[in-house]
């Protein structure tokens, strides 16, 4: 099983490649190529990943097996949308797993680590946005006790898409989480 650790600046290039690969694998076939290209360029470039790894208001976790990155999560602490009721919210901005690692427990372990990080940062609620057309991800989040609380617009390139906002209390762990 891959080990989970905090990302280092030296991970930025590999993280950028993994982020783009997993995003394209998941959403490329159902979105316009131009919008995918624009989103990947502005969200996953090496310089963007380096800035996010270095950002004190974020945490980037990576899963590594045999020197290869297999998954990652990015967490941040900033203002939450109004539908998230919390005193100290934390967001799971991204939780991506390479296709070859789907179904092998990596996402479960990574999510558990994300929630532990939220506990360590004393967040009372953890929230995330998930594309309305990604039922697999929504089902996964529900297993961890997340419920739908609202929606927001996620700009994919020039295409404004609807994300469902899901949230859960940090300290109310469901069985098995």
Automatic annotation (TrEMBL):
Occurrences of domain N-acetyltransferase (ranges): 2-171
InterPro entries reported for this sequence: Acyl_CoA_acyltransferase, Bact_Acetyltransf, GNAT_dom
EC number: 2.3.1.57
Name the UniProt record assigns to this protein: Ribosomal protein S18 acetylase RimI-like enzyme
GO molecular function: diamine N-acetyltransferase activity
Keyword hit for Acyltransferase: yes
A Pfam entry, by short name: Acetyltransf_1
Matching Gene3D superfamilies: 3.40.630.30
Keywords attached to this entry: Acyltransferase, Transferase
The keyword Acyltransferase is annotated on this UniProt entry: yes
């Amino acid at each position: 099983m891959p080990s989970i650790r905090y990302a280092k600046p030296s991970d930025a290039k590999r993280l950028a490649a993994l982020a783009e690969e997993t995003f394209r694998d998941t959403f490329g076939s159902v979105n316009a190529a131009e919008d995918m290209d624009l989103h990947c360029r502005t969200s996953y470039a090496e310089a963007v990943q380096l800035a996010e790894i270095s950002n004190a208001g974020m945490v980037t976790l990576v899963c590594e097996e045999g020197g290869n990155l297999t998954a990652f999560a990015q967490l941040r602490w900033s203002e939450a949308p109004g539908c998230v009721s919390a005193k100290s919210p934390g967001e799971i901005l991204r939780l991506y797993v390479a296709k070859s690692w789907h179904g092998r427990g990596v996402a479960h372990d990574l999510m558990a680590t994300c929630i532990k990080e939220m506990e360590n940062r004393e967040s009372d609620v953890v929230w995330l946005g998930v594309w309305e057309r990604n039922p697999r991800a929504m089902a996964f989040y529900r297993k961890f006790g997340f419920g739908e609380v609202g929606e927001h617009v996620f700009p994919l390139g020039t295409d404004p898409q609807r994300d469902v906002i899901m949230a859960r209390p940090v300290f109310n762990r469901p069985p098995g989480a």
